[in-house]
Amino acid sequence: MIDQNSENRENSLAKSSYTVGGMTFISRISGFIRDIIFANIFGASSNTDAFFVAFKIPNFFRRLFAEGAFIQSFVPVLNDYKVNNPIELKKFISYIQGNLALILFIITFFGIIFSENIVNLFAPGFEVGGERYLLASDMLKITFPYLFFIALTAMSAGIFNTFNKFLLPAITPVFLNISLIFSALYLTNVFSTPIIALAYGVLIAGILQYIIQIPFLYKIDLLVAPKISFKFSGVNKVMKLMLPAILGTAVVQINLMIDSIVASLLISGSISWLYYSDRLVELPLGVFGIAIATVILPALSAKYSKKDISSYKSTLKNALNISVIFSLPAMFGLIVLSSHIITSLFYYGNFTFNDTLMSSLSLIAYSAGLPAFILMKVLLTAFFSRQDTKTPVRYGVIAVLFNIVINLSVLTYYLQNPFSGAHAFLALATSLSAWLQVVLLYKNLRKSNYINESIFFTKTSYQSLFSCIIMAIILSYTLIDVLEWAQNVYYIRGMLLLMYIIFGAAIYTSMMYILGYKIKKNYI
């Protein structure tokens, strides 16, 4: 009976992962459509650099505080109330919501007031008083309130995930993409500087994403009136966990922002090239890494609360295993097909062939860190599910400092000897930093006996790596030259790209089967 219950839990976990992964895939595809439209209409120019800075800043704070540190601290405590103190559950949510709204309002207010100073901080390469600088600060005044709404949306997502309602939180980001697509296509003519329409698209999306949560919270009887008090024990616990978690959860986001800051000092277009390549890496990261981490955080938290350590370790092991199986082929595929992917998706309108080449360089660099980005998401849940937010901080500081040193080294050399493709070295630094953090997190969990086996040197890892090498070799020898590829119309490029992706997936799957990997026995 116990084995049957365990199997049912694991099947439910796998099903939830598929749900989140599937909805995230839809979200990412709509995001690609959005970025294709951006590239076609606006290209990679000083104006797009200005918008991406104005868009990245509230997004950075969102991922740093809301979807990062807040969720990782909020969900374990929420789950503890759900399991051990359900009577106080609504009161806890009420105070968390009120306190969060107050803090967000203050941050948003000062973000708007000091928009120029913030742009100067996050884009020091923008000349003060210059066109890019003024445009970015004007758009930041419009986009910063997005943080207020999207952070409250993230809190709602944490509630839904804790109660095994994964569909709505996973599909909500689609509203951002729809809003931005609509703004790019229909609102640009309203403004003398067309790209400002995108800033309003961001704000509209934030409002829509929050409003859609309200009826569903009511449906599960967790729509409560916000109250403000920092004395409630649950609030204090979340705040105590959250402060160190800010750095521990957001190393990748901090590193990406550092990349953007340094890129502002490089040639115009560097910020946009990094943006487009990062967006492509976010597809497998969202579908596999974020999906798995989203599902296993409440699962691990519940198992730890119940002192079911054996099941806890088994779930973590299976999550890491499946992360390796999917992340390695995604990495190899992105590297081999990099220039063809960029050409198929973005090489239209104002997006030049040089933009294509530069974006493909940074895509290769970011792809080298994809397995680390995914593994990091899973490894961090092993700490946050046990309400240990301090340990990841130490490793986060090391990883960030490592990235800063490499970024500054690249910048110093570039300023003395300017060279093409410098932005790609910034992306590579972020990837190497992620690998460093993964190794540190893994060693700690291995030492603490929460992981009993290696995640790097296993039969499954060797099977996956060998299959990826075979896949990469075959794809490389059969690929059409990118210049010839670019001569095709957009739908032919898209069809060819899809065929190569399916072909690569078929090679990888076949090789894994030949090498004896049994998928059903290894799913979480």
Helicity, in percent? over 70%
So what's the overall shape?
globular
Rg (C-alpha, Å): 23 Å
Q: Low-confidence stretches at least 5 residues in length (pLDDT < 50)? A: 1-11
Q: Which structural class fits the helix and strand makeup?
A: mainly alpha
Distance between the termini: 19 Å
- Percentage of residues in strands: under 5%
User: Mean pLDDT score, rounded?
Assistant: 84
Count of all domains: 2
Tally of alpha and pi helices: 22
Q: What is the H/E order?
A: HHHHHHHHHHHHHHHHHHHHHH
Task: Describe the sheet with the most strands.
Answer: none
Count of DSSP E strands? 0
Produce the secondary structure layout.
Blueprint: H1 2-42, H2 46-84, H3 89-113, H4 115-122, H5 131-143, H6 146-162, H7 167-171, H8 174-186, H9 196-211, H10 214-219, H11 233-249, H12 251-263, H13 270-305, H14 309-336, H15 338-346, H16 353-367, H17 370-384, H18 391-416, H19 422-447, H20 459-478, H21 482-486, H22 490-514
Helix pairs in contact: 1-8, 1-13, 2-5, 2-6, 2-11, 2-12, 2-13, 3-6, 4-5, 5-9, 6-9, 8-9, 11-18, 12-18, 12-19, 13-14, 13-16, 13-17, 14-16, 14-17, 14-20, 15-16, 15-22, 16-19, 17-19, 18-19, 20-22
